[in-house]
Amino acid sequence: MSELLSTPVQHGAGSYARFGFSLDAGIARRAAIGLVVLATDHTIEYEWRRVLALDGVAFYESRIANSADITAETLARMDGGIAAAVELIRPGERLDVVAFGCTSASMVLGEERVFERIREARPGVACTTPITAARVALGALGARGVALLTPYERSINEAMAAYLRARGVDVVRAGSFEHRDDNEVARIDRESIERAVLALAADPAVDAVFVSCTSLRLVDALAEIEARAGKPVLSSNHALAWHALRLAGVDDPVPGFGRLLMQ
């Protein structure tokens, strides 16, 4: 689409010209992905920018209010804010997928409840959550026995393991940093995460390790940790980005971020 030049070009002090222009498909010509981010999350946008650096693919985020004190009660309070957050993402413009960026809240509320809330604002849109993405990713990787690593308090960790088992994921090992402050979870260092992943991966019953929580930083180190573990490793952010791409019809392999992004 284009507009023709409407006024002649003039020269001299105070002259003004109106120029015509053409429109293209924009930066999201292949995929426009919406992302709902927790107010306290320090990590997911950085990691998504690393993974989703594909021509024609763009993501657009909105924040949702939450407490930095991560408990089942505080997670459940996000239920009423999801639709409002989604409404702020590219209103009136195309979105191919909407991703909700909280693993534990997706478990507490239930994936279908999260999808229902998203579709209040975006009827019929493809949806995913980190726990949805992890389940699909583990299937794509052919993982049977799974180790679960989280930063959550023990009750949430146990509930997440039970949630995954009820949906066909065989969680054979679990571990946690047991820290409730989401702001500080974002500062758990690489060495701590790597040490925990390798300890869980050492169990011969484990085929893959899922590191749950969008605040934990793993994407930059994931390929190296995976190589040391000798088994697939995935994180909430990395699985969520992969699944959002695939739901949007983008099948490009993304090298440098472990086995999953090459699927």
Whole-number mean pLDDT: 95
CATH T-level fold name of the largest domain: Rossmann fold
From the N-terminal CA to the C-terminal CA, the straight-line distance is: 37 Å
Structural class: alpha/beta
CATH class of the largest domain: Alpha Beta
Numbering strands along the chain, what is their spatial order in the largest sheet? 2-1-3-4
Q: Give the SSE string.
A: EHEHHEHHEHEHEHHEHEH
InterPro entries: Iso_Racemase_Enz_sf, MaiA/AMDase
Protein name: Asp/Glu/hydantoin racemase
Provide a descriptive summary of the structure in words.
Pfam families: Amdase. This is Asp/Glu/hydantoin racemase. It comes from Burkholderia ambifaria MEX-5. InterPro entries: Iso_Racemase_Enz_sf, MaiA/AMDase. There is one protein chain. The protein has helices spanning 44-51, 72-76, 82-87, 103-109, 111-121, 130-140, 154-166, 182-185, 190-201, 219-229, 236-247; strands at 31-38, 57-64, 97-101, 126-128, 145-150, 170-176, 208-211, 233-235. The chain is an alpha/beta fold and 263 residues long. The protein folds into two domains: 31-131 and 240-262, Rossmann fold (3-Layer(aba) Sandwich); 134-235, Rossmann fold (3-Layer(aba) Sandwich). The radius of gyration is 21 Å and the shape is globular. The chain starts with 30 loop residues before the first strand and ends in a 16-residue tail after the last helix. The model has no long low-confidence stretch (mean pLDDT 95).
